[in-house]
Amino acid sequence: MTSVFQRDFLLNKVKSKTSWDVIVIGGGASGLGIALDAANRGYSTLLLEQSDIAKGTSSRSTKLIHGGVRYLANGDLRLVYDALHERGILQHNAAHLVKKQSFVIPCYTLLSKIKYYFGLKLYDLLSGSYSLGKSEALSHDEVTRLFPGLKAEGLVGGVKYYDAQFDDARLAVNLAQTCVEQGGVVLNYFEVTGLVKKDRRIQGVTAKDIETGKEYTFLSKVVVNATGVFVDNILRMDVPEKKPMVKPSQGIHIVIKRSFLNGECALMIPETADGRVLFAIPWQEHILVGTTDTPIDEYSMEPQALDKEVKFILDTIKQYLKHPPGEEDILSVFAGLRPLAAPADNLVKTKEISRSHKLFVSDSGLVTITGGKWTTYRKMAEDTVKKIIEVGKLPKVECNTKNLKICGSTEIYTNSHLNVYGDKEKNILELVKELPFLEKKLITTLPYMEAEVVWAVRFEMARTVEDVLARRLRILFLDAKAAIEAAPRVAELLQMELNYDENWKSNQIIQFNKVAANYLRQTENYILHQN
Questions:
Q1: Structural domains of the chain, ranges and CATH numbers in brackets
Q2: Per the confidence metrics, is the pTM higher than 0.85?
Q3: Strand-strand pairing, 367-370 and 215-225
């Protein structure tokens, strides 16, 4: 089996082309959605990502495709309505990744039960024909049957509702693959170093291939800045004194064993001490708990969870569980950054800043998008491409992504972890049949096979150990110690596939261990013992 989603193939395609209709900077949800929409409309499209696909915020979400229950309380009905409809569209187009998930809000007063019940009935109404199921009120006994470990003292019942869950990093890879299938080019490890201008108008970008150090100039009719929390870096390439557009906040999640919740339903805590909501969600045979909202001034590609954030999550969940997790029970902790549109008033709390996206066109013609969330990525892309057509004077073509199936989409469900590959699951099994030694598990406690590493390199543009263990497979996010243990074998498989030397392999393991240390709560010489 061959695939065009290979870096060398796509790099050769870039070298043979002199100019583009659209260049998108940034390989997260926003950038991938825009590139896919543009390519699908027939515009020649190039996406450049300085690191790996979804390396930043887009692989660090709460793994929910949802309308946003808490936005109802803010009266942001338009955002909720749009998100619920986009949820339905995405579930149809990426059926292998977007799955229905039930949630329960435990209620400790009759008034709260009534409030959430009627609020969620409005949620159902807004979802219209895209409803995943009707919300219902639950008795005390019904809630405790669903959550045997829940504190029952004072519990009057709860409300059950439905949303959708997904794997964010895998959807990002599938969007990139779909973009390439539509004629676009997606390149990871390609850093944009400058903007090309003529008569004060942007004509393209300069960029560097991180792997080789070679520099390129790419010309285009429109350049789109979709770099998430880093949009201001690109804006300053255009106008050095540009006022920041983004007010970043950090959110973290912890991952614990499934036994702490021990059920199929997710738990939604509606009112935390900081006025947010907290989720505890079954995800890949583990429990994902989050998130926080911490304003930050300095940020990087690898944000770190703060002690106070971890404590906040543990303290909050402790109020609801009979046997709550402690620090020692955390298998992995990860932080993500929200690229929130900066308000005029800096006193506004980050949790109150709208998650609606913002579009901005500079005097030079640079199109910038910021804000938004995974659920509405397609609508964000549609709005942005509409603006691209106007700025670049491109021929008008209607958006068709509502009806575009994402690479891998299938409604056939198999009771296997390989189901996230959708209709490509059979190809991985064929690879195992061809090379039986690849059936071996990377880690005995997790289902991932060596064949998946080879597949990730050959057909999903994985270039590093981190690409594989963090985003193609989700081991780093599920169990950081297990990821560290798997790293040497993954490095060995990558070395063989990419024809690198022993130094490369050794450096990869060292680099990965440095990243993995951020996901561990107790590093006490753990990584040193692995080397």
A1: 7-57+169-245+351-403 (3.50.50.60), 98-164+247-341 (3.30.9.10), 417-530 (1.10.8)
A2: yes
A3: parallel
